[in-house]
Amino acid sequence: MVTIKEIARLTNVSTATVSNVLNGKPGAAGAAKAREITTIAENLHYMPNKLARSLQQQKTNTIGIITEDLTVFNAPEIVDGIDEYCEENGYEIILENMRLFKRYNNDFTDTPKHHELLDLIMKNMTAKQVEGIIYVGYHCREISYLPSRVQVPFVYAYCYPKEDIYPSVLYDDEGAAADVTRLLIQKGHRRIGVICGPAASYHTKTRLKGFRAAMAGHGLKVKNSLVVYGDWERQSGYRLAAGLLDQKVTAIFSFNDLMASGVYEQAAERGLRIGRDISLFGFDNRDTSEGYVPSLSTVHVPLNEIGRRCAEITLNQIKRRRPAGKRIYLPCTVLERQSVEPV
Amino acid sequence: MVTIKEIARLTNVSTATVSNVLNGKPGAAGAAKAREITTIAENLHYMPNKLARSLQQQKTNTIGIITEDLTVFNAPEIVDGIDEYCEENGYEIILENMRLFKRYNNDFTDTPKHHELLDLIMKNMTAKQVEGIIYVGYHCREISYLPSRVQVPFVYAYCYPKEDIYPSVLYDDEGAAADVTRLLIQKGHRRIGVICGPAASYHTKTRLKGFRAAMAGHGLKVKNSLVVYGDWERQSGYRLAAGLLDQKVTAIFSFNDLMASGVYEQAAERGLRIGRDISLFGFDNRDTSEGYVPSLSTVHVPLNEIGRRCAEITLNQIKRRRPAGKRIYLPCTVLERQSVEPV
DNA sequence: CTGAAAGCGCTAACAG
DNA sequence: CTGTTAGCGCTTTCAG
């Protein structure tokens, strides 16, 4: 690794001069000398050591991302958004993946062990002098264990901390569900079946709230038997659709695309055609949903935008530009495709 | 940020002693003094500055990961595998995402622009003193633009360089396709339809090779009209299945799960039941495939393992334990589920 | 057992 | 316009 010192030696100037020239300081050296320095640096493929620079400047231009689990479908897109924003603003990222799914066999809850792991990661990131940290949840919920000692701006993506001690960015589940419901109502649907996730889930609760609000807004009653609870998997959509179809619903609102795909299956077996005989809405806009036949109407969730926004908040806080906000809900986009028709 | 100097001042010893005590050097100080130092450090939440340490030790214990696109389905799992192995071995990762999909509107090819971007990233990583770099492709193929100046071990995941200049880890497409084909043949299937990806795709070519080899191995001829080409999307599976079913195939081997899901649709519309009336195999083991009804037989590709293996090779090279290998093909696992039955 | 001194690669402040 | 000096936080001889 060729250093600044080496170049200084070869060009008979001080390291300071080399540094100044290479950093484009005006008038750091005479034109001839300056050219000599840059040429030599070029030829030797000189590359500044960022460790040394950061140490001396007391600034790393780096933020840390902690993912609860990078392999869960929403995480990469959020990370991508963070990365994008950071790149545009001269920041870099380091990544720590907690791997919660694999570590705890998919059924962990917020355990002390989890808390310990978080603290360890926080320590490590602090040691690496990150200037801010973004915590990416693997599913939306309130996080009750908070990091112990936070010395830099800390922002939650896709989850939020108890009592909103730190800012967080989520999306507007409730509004999106209400939008979908209103759209179905406008198309003349009255008997709308709802396939929720588990009753305890944040997403289930907020989306259901939006659904009920929209129904009430149109003076429609919600029949309890038309609201059923699955487990987010395709299988449960397939199974639960049977009961709803038996009850002659004209539309089904599935709280995710996976369960909606099970509805296609169930409908096909009964000789019902989605879009024609029954309308269907999903949620998530998984990359496969557009390819369904007919294409699935669904809700696009702004994952990339969540990432970008978190990064923006973090960088703003680093620059002390703005005080920390609270919880931010980004709007979703309702995508009407062929699986929905008027009654 | 409390430093070693601060602690030295408070405990009336030199920074060297503090450092030695905190790093557990035997006999660095008297027992009492040592305890005092550790206590103070604890209370002040002292945290070593890794930048400084790395600079002085000329060692970062960090490797870089370059993803072509983190949001493509295989990338997170590979990154996860790398991360896992590194964590187990005391290494950390920094991530750079090229975002090729978004940058080039999904239809980039290996352009000069791409090459430039790669060099920029390489430079940056080198500046950060990574000890090795893993390049994660977004789909399997030969990469023709190589990084210009590589100063550390460099390993390809899920793609491979021209002339195998650097080691690479992929999976055994050909063998897996042959395994699937043999399994179908053993179940008595003779008229097997194949839904490939685009003809030019590496995956299409190698899997087709495996398919043909297995057929030939059993003295079976491959009818050209039974080998059709899609675009990896569900739609094309739906469409192409029609032609194959018209030709009375008893089994369909779809080269990915997405297109296989289209086959379910087509079959359902014709009143055919997958598993009973027609057997179906996918490829990729996408997380949704198990939830299909009936569950889809498919091929699990060892993405996590690819990541782990790449990390292993990289760390071994860093420690100069082994010479660089060539291309490594990891075995896939055939998952037989309910979508396959004997004729 | 303990500490002074040197130095990793770089930049900022200041003096000539 | 140019160079000297000092120091970021840490570890590592090596001398006491």
Core attributes:
homodimer, about 350 residues, alpha/beta, six-stranded parallel sheet, four-stranded parallel sheet, 12 helices, DNA-binding
Short structural summary:
Chain A is α/β, with parallel strands linked by helices. Chain A contains twelve helices and 14 strands. A six-stranded parallel sheet of chain A has the order 2-1-3-5-7-13, with helices on one face.
- What is the terminal-to-terminal distance of chain A? 71 Å
Largest interface: A-B, 51 and 51 residues
Q: How much β-strand is present in the residues of chain A?
A: 15-25%
Give the overall pLDDT of chain A as a whole number.
91
Total DSSP helices of chain A: 12
What letter string, H or E per element, gives the SSE order of chain A? HHHHEHEHHEEEEEHEHEHEHEEHEE
Radius of gyration of chain A: 27 Å
SS class of chain A: alpha/beta
Count of DSSP strands of chain A: 14
What's the overall geometry of chain A?
A: elongated
Low-confidence stretches of chain A: none
Q: What would you call the quaternary organization? A: homodimer
Strand order of the largest sheet of chain A: 2-1-3-5-7-13
**What level of helicity do the residues of chain A show?**
40-55%
Major sheet attributes of chain A: 6 strands, parallel
